[in-house]
Amino acid sequence: MKVLIVEDDKTIAEGLRYSLISDGYEVVVCENQQTALDVIESNKFDLYLLDLSLPDGSGYDICKYIKAHYHAPVIFLTAFDDEVNVVRGLDMGADDYITKPFRIRELISRMKSALRHYDRPESSDFCTVGSLTINTKQAKVYKNGSEVFLTALEYRLLLVFLNNQGQILTRNQLLGGIWDIDGSFINDNTLSVYIKRLRGKLEDDSQHPVYIETVRGLGYRMGCGNEK
Predict the structure, then answer these.
(1) How far does the chain reach from its first CA to its final CA, in angstroms?
(2) What is the pLDDT of residues 187-218, one digit of tens each?
(3) Under a CB-based contact definition with an 8 Å cutoff, are residues 155 and 178 in contact?
(4) Residues 6 or more apart from 18 whose CB is under 8 A from it?
(5) Distance CA 76, CA 99 (A)
(6) Are strands 146-148 and 140-143 parallel, antiparallel or unpaired?
(7) What does the longest C-alpha to C-alpha distance in the chain come to?
(8) What secondary structure letter does DSSP report for 78?
(9) What span, in angstroms and rounded, lies between the C-alpha atoms of 83 and 128?
(10) Rg (CA), the chain
(11) Which residues of the chain have pLDDT under 70?
């Protein structure tokens, strides 16, 4: 398993490198954006750990490049833990976000969780619900044949519904399904925002949803897409 660490703090970078190598990972470390982009162009990595603040740029830009060219998880390592930065990173396609200082075992647990989302076998590359078609191999969604562009978190939320179609899911179950941990970076309000965004992109009438239905007092359920 090959991991790229982009971190300008040499103490943190070396500590991470040593810990990950001890855990069986192959590790490459870069200290700035340009070196990282050069390395990414000539190497294939299974997972990327990116610091947000770099001497010559930002982890956001590296993440954007990775997501445009490769199918692999990205985890941000940063001292910034406010919701604006979290949501911005997720909207760019990041798979997780961990705040410094962090425990190495927690980081490795999150790495394994992110990798499972990419390695999970699917019975078919395509799933159809009503007028929606989801290409799980390419992580693309189509409605009536036209592509619907979802952020990484919106897509992951949709997968949680798809994998539990017809079942009522509580808000806590949705948070757990998104993160595979305790959902500490997403609160109820933020989850509501993402459900609203997803409905706005998938439903013909978001006020009367047929894909992501509200089950009053219990949670949400993915319907079959038929008008009631």
Answers:
(1) 48
(2) 667 888 889 999 999 999 989 999 999 998 88
(3) no
(4) none
(5) 8
(6) antiparallel
(7) 59
(8) E
(9) 34
(10) 18
(11) 80-83, 85-86, 119-124, 179-188, 226-228
Q: Is 25 helix (H, G, I), strand (E, B) or coil?
A: coil
Give the angle subtended at the CA of 193 by the CAs of 192 and 198, to the nearest 5°. Answer: 100
Residue 130 CB neighbours (<10 A): 16
Provide the residue type at 167 as one letter: Q
Question: By three-state DSSP, how is residue 158 classified?
Answer: helix
| pTM for the structure as a whole | 0.56
Inter-residue contact 64 to 92 (CB < 8 Å): yes
Q: With contact defined as beta carbons under 8 Å apart, do 130 and 225 qualify?
A: yes
Domains, the chain, in order of start with CATH, read: 2-119 (3.40.50.2300), 126-222 (1.10.10.10)
Q: What is the pLDDT of residues 86-118, one digit of tens each?
A: 677 777 778 888 888 888 998 998 898 888 777
What is the Cα–Cα distance from 142 to 131, expressed in whole angstroms?
A: 8
Structure token pair of residue 161: 């519904």
Q: Which residues contact 197 (CB under 8 A, 6 or more apart)?
A: 151, 154
DSSP 174-224: HHHHHHSS--TT--HHHHHHHHHHHHHHH-SSTTS-SSEEEETTTEEEE--
